[in-house]
Known about the structure:
This protein has helices spanning 41-72, 77-94, 100-108, 116-119; strands at 2-6, 9-13, 18-21, 32-35. It is α+β, with helices and mostly antiparallel strands. Helix 2 (77-94) packs antiparallel against helix 3.
Amino acid sequence: SVVAEFAGGRANLEDSYTVRRSPWHGDGEQPLVETFMNRSGDTIVGESFLEVRAKLLEVAATFDRIDRSASDESLGDDATAKRELLRQATEILLTEEPNRAEKLQHLFSRTYESNWRTAMGLTAPDPS
């Protein structure tokens, strides 16, 4: 049986899983990458429930701490904007639409700026 290592631990792969190799950039080796396909919803929930529950409890506790501290003093502009992003993220999670992870990534990503290298101090400013 093939055992896959992943962020949440280890899993035995059954015949219903597809095992493939993907290119590795660097030393030329091609490490084995496990692609979990054909897993049932029951399997996914069973493997992920406790970890996801803990993360949701942490999110709820964070909102509670923010709200308790904000009742004593108002949030600054930066903190208010970040709290609003977190609120929008929870709304995305509650939708039934596909690609929620992609939508969250876009929500938390910076807007592309063509002069990002200069803005981040990675290159000298263009003399023109």
